């Protein structure tokens, strides 16, 4: 099987002579990360430089060099570089001045918070779910009646909080585009995992599964209060939302309070329920290589799993993907899977 090609582009240079690497991508982790090592590099790299990582000539990470370690040994000099994607800037950048906004749209809040963050194209913010992503425009209001920007809080946390209260996530695409939306809950299968008891046609090196009900509940109730409605009685402005988990084995209710106004409490309750369901199943597979049928393994993609050990013959969502290479294992991919439509906390 032909090896997958990995390349780092930085400062007009292209590096391919790695001795080991680890490239992570996860829809539910704020900042995707990478760690690359190569010997006798012959290139000059500085911390803070923009960089792009390509796998089989496909852009898989658009980010910044965070850390450099270099040295030498008998075989010669070595250089290790690590960094994160552009979302890492929003994780690191904090709100400097506290402020309370009244009746601000989510898109306007994002544009204001991002205005001083370098390297980010504020026009490339999209809204939607799965493949139905669109550029933000005047029709995408997502109004926030009262928004508290707390000094010292990261820009990412502020935007994530308000996205979640509207039933959405806030994440980054490989090319650096920021998305307010949700991963795929359905769609066509792009990859397959096979693990037959006979061993015939298998492509699994190893697997791990954890099933846990300790953080799951039979129902979720959301209690909140609409802001800016002083002319109404308290019992008129209380907002409630509810979701139930038909697959939970016994009665175990969960109640949460909203600290800010919530546009759709039922949608928020469903989001919390899906977060709890996500915690209930942790499933991962390790496969040879970084691609299948000429296509790199991707997050936010559907994968059919035919696993006779676990008893699966169904679709899962790939939400996490790690490409690794070292002298001992060669090139491998670790895929983290979840039930479609469930989300982490």
Question: How would you sum up this structure, described in words?
Answer:
The protein is mainly β and about 350 residues long. It folds into four domains: about 80 residues, Baseplate protein-like domain - beta roll fold (Phage tail proteins - horseshoe like beta roll fold, Roll), CATH 2.30.300.10; about 90 residues, Phage tail protein beta-alpha-beta fold (3-Layer(bab) Sandwich), CATH 3.55.50; about 80 residues, Roll (Phage tail proteins - horseshoe like beta roll fold); about 60 residues, Phage tail proteins - 2 layer sandwich fold (2-Layer Sandwich). Helices cover about 15% and strands about 45% of the residues. It has five helices and 24 strands. Strands 1, 2, 3, 4, 5, 6, 7, 14, 15, 19, 22, 23 and 24 form a 13-stranded mixed β-sheet that branches. A four-stranded mixed β-sheet has the order 10-9-13-12. About 5% of the residues have low confidence.
């Amino acid at each position: 099987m032909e090896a997958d090609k990995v390349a780092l582009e930085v400062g007009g240079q292209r590096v391919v002579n790695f001795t080991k690497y680890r490239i992570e991508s996860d829809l539910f982790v704020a900042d995707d990360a990478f760690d690359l090592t190569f010997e006798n590099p012959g290139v000059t790299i500085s911390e803070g430089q923009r960089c792009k990582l390509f796998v089989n000539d496909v852009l898989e990470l658009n980010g910044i060099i965070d850390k450099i370690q270099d040295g030498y040994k008998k075989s010669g000099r070595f250089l290790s570089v690590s960094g994160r994607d552009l979302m890492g800037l929003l994780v690191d950048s904090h709100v400097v001045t506290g402020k309370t906004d009244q009746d601000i749209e989510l898109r306007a809040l994002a544009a204001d918070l991002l205005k001083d963050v370098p390297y980010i194209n504020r026009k490339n913010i999209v809204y939607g779910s799965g493949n139905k992503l669109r550029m933000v425009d005047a029709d995408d209001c997502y109004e926030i009646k009262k928004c508290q920007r707390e000094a010292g809080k990261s820009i990412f946390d502020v935007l994530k909080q308000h996205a979640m209260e509207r039933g959405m996530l806030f994440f980054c695409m490989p090319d650096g585009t920021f998305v307010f939306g949700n991963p795929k809950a359905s769609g066509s299968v792009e990859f397959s995992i096979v693990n037959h008891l006979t061993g015939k046609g298998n492509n699994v090196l190893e697997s791990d599964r954890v099933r846990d009900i300790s953080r799951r509940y039979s129902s979720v109730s959301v209690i909140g209060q609409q802001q800016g409605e002083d002319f109404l009685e308290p019992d008129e402005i209380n907002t409630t939302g509810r979701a139930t988990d038909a697959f939970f084995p016994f009665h175990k209710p969960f109640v949460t309070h909203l600290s800010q106004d919530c546009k759709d409490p039922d949608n928020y309750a469903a989001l919390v329920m899906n977060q709890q369901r996500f915690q209930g199943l942790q499933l991962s597979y390790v496969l040879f290589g970084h691609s299948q049928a000429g296509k790199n393994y991707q997050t936010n993609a559907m994968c059919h799993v035919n696993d006779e050990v676990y008893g699966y013959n169904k679709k899962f969502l790939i939400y996490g993907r790690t490409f690794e290479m070292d002298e001992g294992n060669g090139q491998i991919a670790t895929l983290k899977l979840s039930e479609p439509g469930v989300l982490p906390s």
